[in-house]
Amino acid sequence: MGPHRMPAAEVDVSPGLVRRLLAAQQPDLAHLPVEVMANGWDNVMCRVGDVLVARLPRREVAARLLVHEQRWLPVLEPRLPLPVPAPVRNGQPDLGYPWPWSIVPFLPGDVAARKPPADLRDAAVSLAGFLGALHTPAAPDAPVNPHRGIPLADRSATVTQNLSVLGRLVDHRAVMRVWEAAAAVPTWGRPPSWVHGDLHPANILIDRGRISGVIDFGDITSGDPATDLSVAWMLLPADCHDAFQNAYRAAAEYVPDDHIWARARGWALALSLAFLAHSADNPLIAEIGQRTINAVLA
């Protein structure tokens, strides 16, 4: 069957549309130059002047996620040790554009998927400290994401589906051996934690060789933090995993056990299959998926 392409945009987001929305709703910003920075699965990012970015959903499902960012990221930002793009202004549907949108600060750097950290052990410690600060008990009304933060075994049907899409591109026996072992591990038994939900090397910024920010909190949710800890297999070589685990253990408010790392490896496998199965026109995500599955199965 082969990998699928990235979902098509439901609305065309252009610099012209952004300029019109700014003129109508944020007139003090309307004089600033606007240019497209990135056109992703869910959102279009447009640079607005030197220090701001407009973030506009390109699909209806992403609009619901953007509202979660608007509600919760400003609450979480003060305690996080790395910069995050907490919205500074919220836009409304207007001028034929049907969904909420945000103005967020511009964070310098390139994504780790294109520009890896210069010192991977330093990156392991920095990222673990960030996750330890994030992974605290979630608010009672925190978002619930049906795909992230859930019991790992609940991803089994999706794993099987993605394997079917990928066919001979992956070793089915090796994948299922690792998957079945991870899915059998005891589930998260503590109160639901805050979870980034989409933490991979294309959502980690690198500036001057070091991690300089974490972006794209659209999948923010409550649940099992093992979802986020899967980033170790996506970004870090095996000889940095101990540094990552030790730094996370020092930063977290709870005591991580061996089960959480086993589930994290399972999450890395599940997400790598999803990346590979849906990246026919996105080589950056395909590369993350291939790197991750290689690390998990090594």
From TrEMBL:
Signal sequence residues: none
Organism: Planotetraspora mira
Membrane spanning residue stretches: none
InterPro entries, per the entry: AGP_Transferase, Aminoglycoside_PTrfase, Kinase-like_dom_sf
Domain of life according to the entry: Bacteria
SUPFAM superfamilies: Protein kinase-like (PK-like) (SSF56112)
Name under which the protein is recorded: Aminoglycoside phosphotransferase domain-containing protein
Stretches assigned to the Aminoglycoside phosphotransferase domain: 36-265
Pfam families hit by this protein: APH
